[in-house]
Specification:
Layout lengths: L10 E3 L2 E3 L9 E11 L2 E11 L12 E4 L4 E5 L5 E11 L6 E6 L2 E2 H4 L5 E3 L3 E6 L2 E10 L10 E8 L2 E11 L7 H24 L1 H12 L17 E3 L10 H14 L6 E3 H4 L6 H4 L1
């Protein structure tokens, strides 16, 4: 029923009402009425829906290409599979089939590339509201090559009132930089630094040893035996028959004072450490 009157301009299909061509006269309140019996009584239920009819003026403009944006680029790696999307708005135009296609530098795709390498998908309506349609068409590349870098790919949308287009370029996408060289350089730099440090330590080993003994000579008293089993570090020899001026004082006083007293070395002095008649070679 429509506005509480029987409605005969439609066709009932199961529980649905089909109106072949909606007009302004079809606007109103539609009620679905069902009768049933329960407990020996006859019952009636109904549900009402209001239908409003909108009059959409016919589209008298060329369609609008929404994607791709004009004069844009897309990055792609050589060998990758790629799809370019063309999306256009055709407005309300039920009497015509939307015309949407791709061009390559002004030529049809099939005239430029092999159909197994580059091809167009069928155009399809992706959204329709009150007769206004959004149509898309894909251009697919099986594997991007050098031949696809540079040509201008143009999406064209056309109806009886004109056409619009938008172009896109494919540019090479450089692979991400490898960090192998940086890691290798870092490792080589660290190795070079370690070698330099080792060389410096080896070259200054005597100075380091003297520094250690200078600050820790109390740990190595001259009367104690070293871990190497040696009783002395050095034997002081000088001419006792006819010493030059200051030689005896240097050997017997200054050397022990500095080397033993300050640096912790153990000196063997003939007159001090070797008993008369003792074996000199055994001390050496």
């Amino acid at each position: 029923m429509a506005d509480c009157e029987p409605y005969d301009r439609g066709q009932v299909l199961g529980s649905n009402l089909l109106i072949p061509r909606v007009g302004v006269a079809d606007q109103g309140n539609y009620s679905c009425v069902a009768d049933f019996r329960r407990f020996n009584r006859r019952w009636r239920v109904s549900r009402t829906r209001r239908v409003r009819v909108f009059i959409v003026p016919p589209n008298e403009k060329p369609p609008t290409v929404l994607l791709p944006l004009k004069n844009t680029t897309v990055e792609a790696e050589i060998g990758q599979r790629l799809q370019l999307l063309c999306l256009a708005f055709f407005g309300y135009d039920v009497s015509r089939v939307p015309l949407l296609y791709w061009l390559v530098d002004g030529y049809f795709v099939e005239d430029v590339y092999n159909a197994s390498d580059v091809w167009e998908h069928q155009a399809r309506v992706v959204n329709e509201s009150y007769g206004e349609r959004y149509v898309q068409r894909l251009l697919e590349f099986r594997s991007v090559t050098e031949l696809h870098l540079g040509p201008e790919f143009t999406c064209v949308a056309q109806n009886a009132f004109g056409f619009t287009n938008a172009s896109i370029l494919i540019v090479r996408k450089e692979p991400p930089p490898s960090h192998t060289a940086a890691v290798a350089g870092s490792l080589l730099g660290s190795l070079a630094l370690l070698l330099l440090l080792a060389g410096l330590l080896y070259a200054r080993r005597i100075d380091l040893l003297l520094f250690y003994r200078d600050h820790h000579h109390h740990l190595h008293p001259s009367s104690s035996n070293a871990a190497d089993g040696k009783e002395y570090d050095a034997y002081v020899s000088f001419c006792t028959e006819c010493p030059s001026p200051g030689e005896e004082e240097f050997a017997l006083k200054l050397l022990p004072q500095v080397l033993e007293g300050e640096l912790g070395y153990r000196l063997c002095l003939l007159d001090r450490d070797i008993l008369p008649g003792g074996g000199l070679l055994g001390k050496l």
